[in-house]
Design brief:
Length: 124
Amino acid sequence: QVQLVESGGGLVQAGDSLRLSCAASGRTLRSYSMGWFRQAPGKEREFVAHISRSGYGTHYADSVKGRFTISRHSFENTVFLQMNSLKPEDTAVYYCAARQSAYGSTSADDYDYWGQGTQVTVSS
């Protein structure tokens, strides 16, 4: 069993940056690929980014490509999402997820464990 806890969300202005963290307990994350998803009010959960188990492979949604960076620190058992040039449309609850596979996926159904989420609000 893997417990995931997100942190780092908050209220920022358009153009600002935030770094989200996802800390794991229970098991090492070295066995898992990791993903970030988000869900805005009244919308379905959508894929943001994923990173492979090795950390060498990443993939981003078109809406965040060039602005967001996913990374992982295996020793600290933590995954990060650096978010730059934030826009009001980035406002959502952000979730990290773990997938027992070498490679991530853009489908939420492919992930085995989820955190509770952290709120990100970007004002214009």
